[in-house]
Specification:
- The protein is of the alpha+beta class and 154 residues long.
- It has two helices and twelve strands; from the N terminus they run βββαβββββββββα.
- It has a six-stranded mixed beta sheet, with helices on one face. Strands 1-5-6-9 form a four-stranded antiparallel beta sheet, with no helix packed on it.
- β7 and β8 form a beta hairpin.
- The longest helix has 16 residues.
């Protein structure tokens, strides 16, 4: 069990039992993409919750990446240029995938195979790239994650 904890610039959500950590540089659309995932999954009838937006506390517990929210930002998500909204949230959740948004014209046709995101204490999460202009970003993630699950025999 690692006691190492890091405060990273990211957003974290839960869809059903799946934890998703949105990573990337400032202004890359992490919050917007997380919000799109939340609303699309909720429209599909899946339970959803925000863990944290902008600041996520990451720890590694028994080999599992855990995302926690700092209490001052409990339930708050910033939609750049629109404002800050309140959302259903949970204090912490295990993370299963890292998601990064990519500008569509700059996206390679195929991303690197088995791409991983390095986190605190040597923890790693599978990294999936979702084009910023996707009409159904959660649907795209679900298809990619299912394919990853099948090809790795998870």
């Amino acid at each position: 069990m690692s006691a190492e904890r890091a405060n990273i610039h990211a957003s974290a959500i839960v869809v059903g039992q799946t934890g998703l950590l949105f990573v990337g540089p400032s202004g890359s659309g992490k919050s917007e993409l997380a919000f799109s995932f939340l609303t699309e999954a909720q429209r599909c009838g899946l339970p959803v919750a925000l863990v944290a937006d902008d600041q996520v506390l990451i720890t590694l517990r028994n080999g599992i990446v855990i995302a926690e929210r700092p209490e001052p930002i409990k339930g708050l998500l910033e939609l750049r240029g629109s404002g800050i909204i309140s959302m259903n949230s949970v204090a912490e959740a295990p993370m299963h995938y890292a998601i990064t948004s990519v500008p569509h014209p700059e996206s390679p046709r195929l991303p690197p195979e088995n791409e991983m995101m390095e986190l605190v204490g040597g923890a790693r999460l599978p990294l999936l790239r979702i084009p910023r202009d996707s009409i159904m970003p959660y649907g795209k993630f679900a298809a990619l994650a299912q394919n990853l699950f099948i090809t790795k025999g998870m």
